[in-house]
Specification:
binds flavin-adenine dinucleotide; single chain; four-stranded mixed beta sheet; alpha+beta; 20 helices
């Protein structure tokens, strides 16, 4: 959508295809029984990107801050400012009194990373500035910032190792390590993971729900003369003829194509027959790399309509809440033990999986979002809508579906999550649920066509099939195919909403540059 908005704004003829009825993909919301829910990301992080894009495109979006709370067992911390890090330190020491030295070290590292983040996001991202029109920005902000940025990038790249491994070098207590890191994706690069304290302070929420962001972009695209075709799924790319085909076999010609969806899909559905042999070879090499890699972790989300006023929940925590009911930590539950179950799935009894589920739900960390606490208009009077989610393994849901008991498994999972949360942080939940339903990793795969139901692109593996160094991000949007660019969560790693937007802009810039070069030649 960012690419389409920029290209339409630049006067290009733009056609955006979206397979669903609504645009926005994993930035989306829906209403059920008068309750508003966000189906993908729960709140947005600016990261020096989103507001810069909105300003550059002259898009108005009414937003509120989305404060975060962190909770472990009975201890709850509301993150208000940089000083909250000291309170986080106290909270951890209270729970792990024998680990004071390790906690001090952790806090020192987080503080350092927060300084790096201040540099990284310290100015509006220059990609969204028309530097010809903003010369003062170049001299007053960009040039003084660049040396600091280069220095910081060096530091960041040195912290690229998986956070689990990094923490082991100085945190000996495995429970403490889990409490710090278990709500991150497997093998998340250390810098990205430990920057969360800065990110918690950065969250904002569009009034009316996160879908207001894609809605604003959609209006911009249309207002600028772009066209949007919803319920239109691209099923074939014929690269040598610059054609795409949709599910109804309609064919569309393009001068430039920006693919902003799952990259494995692009490589699977692209025909390269008439292209030069050299291009075909590079394409096949890239395809092999892509198909060998996996999407990263997915998520399970439980949606609740609750007959209890917002105030009852407001007293406990903010509308965006990371809660861990037990300080024991997941240990090997979601790694070795789950792998064992999955590898031996044919021999494993249902009861063994349910026993594992007991432990998994008791020890996990939950991301709890209450949209009404951010915008009270999003719920019926005296009621509360809640979304409880946690990272979930796609393969588990996939195997259970194939074994024919997915609905039963989902119901067992929902029951356990509800009992863990109402036995701990929200006791009033127990008898107040009007309705409940959930989305699994399979729903995400089905909905946005994302490999393995991934929510932030590629799994963090040793060999990454796309660019993963910030200084090379400009190249992340290039593909081996002529006139095809890539954008979104699969184009760069680590990804999320800001990076999807940034790559969208970079891809639009590359396409425009190509168009202008062609015109002038
Ligand atoms: C529960 C949850 C929490 C999250 N939390 C955060 C967070 O805190 N911070 C953060 O930065 N990110 C977070 N994310 C991730 C973030 O939402 C995504 O990384 C980001 O929105 C991806 O955007 P995208 O446009 O690249 O891809 P998508 O949102 O997947 O969009 C791709 C679009 O392409 C469409 N499409 C796919 N295939 C086709 C086809 N063949 N033809 C036509 N259309 C097609 C899809 O329907 C979809 O609309 C979260 C996600 C979830 C689900």
């Amino acid at each position: 959508m960012t690419s389409a908005a920029y290209l339409a704004h630049a006067g290009q003829k733009v056609l955006l295809f979206e397979k669903n009825m609504e645009c926005g993909g994993l930035v989306n919301s829906f209403t059920r029984d008068g309750f508003h829910f966000d189906s993908g990301v729960r709140a947005l992080e600016d990261a020096g990107i989103i507001f810069a894009m909105l300003k550059d495109l002259d898009i108005q979006l009414e937003v509120v801050k989305s404060p975060v709370s962190l909770g472990i067992e009975n201890e709850i911390l509301h993150i208000e400012n940089l000083e909250s890090l000291s309170k986080y330190r106290e909270l951890l020491i209270k729970l792990f009194p024998d680990c004071e030295g390790e906690i001090e070290e952790l806090v020192k590292i987080i503080r350092k990373i927060m300084k790096h983040m201040d540099v990284l996001y310290g100015i509006e991202n220059p990609v969204f500035k028309d530097l010809k029109r903003h010369r003062a920005f170049i001299f007053k902000k960009l040039l003084p910032w660049l040396p600091k940025f280069i220095f910081t990038v060096g530091k960041i790249n040195r912290m690229n190792i998986p956070v689990e491994e990094y923490l082991k070098t100085f945190v000996k207590n495995p429970s403490l390590r889990d409490i710090i890191s278990q709500h991150f994706f497997k093998n998340t690069p250390t810098f990205f993971a430990l920057s969360y304290f800065s990110l918690y302070l950065d969250y904002f929420y569009p009034k009316g729900g996160v879908a207001k962001l894609p809605e604003a972009l959609k209006n911009k695209i249309i207002e600028s003369g772009g066209e949007i075709k919803t319920e239109t799924k691209i099923i074939k790319v014929i690269a040598d003829k610059c054609l795409v085909k949709d599910q109804n076999n309609f064919i569309y010609q393009y001068d430039n194509l920006i693919w902003a969806a799952d990259l494995k899909t692009l490589y699977k559905i692209t025909e390269t027959e008439g292209l030069l042999p050299k291009i075909k070879t590079i394409f096949e090499e890239s395809k092999n790399k892509m198909l060998k890699n996996r999407g990263g972790d997915s998520v399970f989300s439980l949606f609740l309509e609750v007959d209890e006023p917002l105030e009852s929940f407001r007293k406990i925590a903010n509308g965006h809440f990371f809660y861990t009911p037990s300080k024991l930590g997941l240990g090997e539950t979601h790694r070795g033990e789950l792998n064992h179950l999955l590898t031996n799935f044919e021999k494993v009894e249902k009861d063994q999986i349910l026993a594992w589920l007991d432990k998994f739900t008791r020890l996990n960390t939950y991301e709890i979002s209450i949209p009404g606490l951010k915008d009270p208009e999003l719920v019926p009077p005296c009621k509360t809508g809640i979304i409880i989610s946690f990272l979930a393994e796609y393969d588990l849901f996939n195997k259970i579906q194939k074994a024919g008991w997915l609905d039963e498994f989902i119901s067992e999972l929902e029951n356990r999550v509800l009992s863990v949360i109402s036995d701990s942080v929200y006791p009033m939940l127990k008898d107040k649920i009007i309705a409940r339903f959930s989305f699994t990793p399979l729903s995400i795969e089905h909905r946005v066509g994302s490999s393995e139901g991934a929510i932030t692109g590629w799994a963090f593996q040793k060999s990454m099939p796309v660019i993963n160094k910030i200084q090379n991000s400009d190249h992340s949007v290039l593909t081996p195919l002529p006139s095809i660019f890539q954008a979104g969560q699969w184009a760069y790693s680590p990804a999320g909403v800001p990076m999807s937007i940034l790559t969208g802009k970079l891809a639009a810039d590359k396409a425009l540059k190509k168009i202008r070069k062609f015109k002038n030649s």
